[in-house]
Amino acid sequence: GIQRLISLTGRLPAHDIAERMGMEVVLYRWDASRLPPREQLHQVVGQMKEPKITAVHCMAGADRTGYAVASYRFFVEEWSYQRAIDEMPYYWHLIPNFPRLHKQLRTFLVRSDDIAVSAKP
Residue 90: which residues within 8 A CB-CB, separation 6 or more? Predict the structure, then answer.
């Protein structure tokens, strides 16, 4: 039933199979240790909120996927910053290993009133 597959690792052989199965495959190449460009993170959040059954993945589903899901939780589901971040370790994202990244993520989420308004459904 998945209609769209968002890859945060770039193209993988499995994407050919997904396309043959009729899925739309959207590719990004994010680094696990730094926040992606704001416009790309905003694009992913926008794609996640569209009425398509969407799966988002990276290599382990912990870091890059975690940033995307935390952003979705914050902007679309209107979770608090802390609640969105507190969920990440349950999916193996180790916050103490990424202090600089979390400073960037906090700035992106908490200080992004313009994006928060435009990201609302």
Answer: none
Using CA of residue 117, residue 38, residue 36, residue 10, what is the dihedral sign? positive
CA geometry: angle 72, 88, 81, nearest 5 deg: 55
Residue among 63, 57, 58 nearest 93 (CA): 63
pLDDT in tens, 48-91: 999 999 999 998 888 899 989 999 999 999 999 889 989 988 88
| pTM across the whole model | 0.83
From CA 76, how far away is CA 79, in angstroms rounded?
8
**Biggest CA pair distance of the chain:** 41
What sign results for the dihedral spanned by CA atoms 48, 24, 9, 54? positive
The whole-angstrom separation of Cα 118 and Cα 38 is: 13
